[in-house]
Each structure stands twice: as structure tokens, then as C-alpha cells.
Specification:
This protein has 183 residues and is mainly α. It has 7 helices and no strands. It has a single domain, classed as Up-down Bundle (Butyryl-CoA Dehydrogenase, subunit A, domain 3), CATH 1.20.140.40. Helix content is 75%, strand content 0%. α2 packs across α3, α4 runs antiparallel to α7 and α6 packs antiparallel against α7. Belongs to the PMEI family.
């Protein structure tokens, strides 16, 4: 008897929940989700940006600081992984490979070291809540990544890695524009 009297009550509560306005926390989450989408709309590859940002579970509710943490961390891990890959390829090829490729890889190693340094500086500033020069550091990272690819005067042996790294740096630059210098 008690079960049959709770069914109408549950049904009424369910209907009321569906008809009531969206709670403020849900609209705030939607607004923050929109921030990531707006960022991605301003990058060179919307789909890549969206996949990169939303690979992190914090993305749906990310404000600009969390979004910067996500994007710069993704770029940092990618750049350090590629830097390590380049170093391993230089060792693997040694002196027995094409001298132009070895020279290009050594140049790329320096470019990636600079890109990692710039991205790491932004991550340090994020931890210190100092948001100055994110745009310049992002552009510096992207410039070095492009220099690696362009140093081969054609298709490099790491073109795919460079393309991904350049796209990540582009996302970082767009996110950096969310910060004013007076923050």
C-alpha cells in the first residue's frame, strides 16, 4: 500500500524537475563550455582544438585559467615527447645517416628545447598567478616549432609531429588572448 502512494509523488516531482528553470550552476557550466568552443573557433583547426581541450575532464567547466592549464600542459607534454623522440633519432642514426637529416634533427632539437622552455615559463607563471606575456611566449614556441619544420626545406622526417605541435601552440596563443596584461 505504501509503494502505490509514493508513485504519484515521484511522478509529480519528476515532472516539476523537468519544468523548472535550469539551475544557475548548469547555466554557468554551459557558459564555461562555451569559452572552450569560442577559443577553438579562433584556432587554425577547430576539430583538433576541441579534441585536444576536451581530452581533459576539467574542460566542460573550465574558466580561462583552467583552460590555459589544459592547453599549455598538452603543448608541453607533446613538445617534450617530440624533443625526446628527436634526441633518440639522432642517437639511432648516429654518424651513418644522411648528414642533412642529422643536421636538421640537431637543429630541431634546439628548436624544441626553446619551445619547451617558453611553454614551461607559461606553466610556471600560471602557478604563480602571473599572466604576463603568455601571447609572446606562445608565439615564440610556435616560431621555434615552425623553424624545425622549415629547416628541412621540404618534408621533414617528423612532419606529423611538427604539425601537431604547431596546432597545439596555436591553441595556446588563442587562449593567451583571454588574459589582459593587467591581470
Amino acid at each position: 500500500m505504501a509503494v502505490s502512494s509514493t508513485v504519484p509523488l515521484l511522478l509529480t516531482l519528476t515532472v516539476l524537475c523537468c519544468l523548472l528553470p535550469t539551475p544557475l550552476f548548469l547555466s554557468a557550466a554551459a557558459e564555461k563550455t562555451q569559452l572552450a568552443i569560442e577559443v577553438c573557433k579562433n584556432t587554425t583547426d577547430f576539430n583538433f582544438c576541441r579534441q585536444s581541450i576536451y581530452s581533459d575532464p576539467r574542460a566542460p567547466t573550465a574558466d580561462r585559467v583552467v583552460l590555459a592549464s589544459i592547453t599549455f600542459t598538452n603543448a608541453y607534454f607533446n613538445a617534450t615527447d617530440t624533443r625526446d623522440y628527436i634526441a633518440s633519432q639522432i642517437k639511432l642514426i648516429g654518424g651513418g645517416g644522411n648528414p642533412d637529416i642529422i643536421k636538421g634533427l640537431k637543429s630541431c632539437l634546439g628548436n624544441y628545447n626553446e619551445a619547451v622552455r617558453a611553454i614551461n615559463e607559461v606553466l610556471g607563471d600560471l602557478n604563480d598567478e602571473s599572466y604576463y606575456d603568455f601571447d609572446k611566449l606562445s608565439l615564440d614556441a610556435e616560431k621555434n616549432l615552425r623553424a624545425c619544420e622549415n629547416g628541412f626545406h621540404g618534408r621533414s622526417p617528423i612532419t606529423q609531429r611538427n604539425v601537431v605541435a604547431i596546432k597545439l601552440a596555436n591553441i595556446c596563443y588563442v587562449v593567451s588572448k583571454l588574459f589582459q596584461y593587467n591581470d
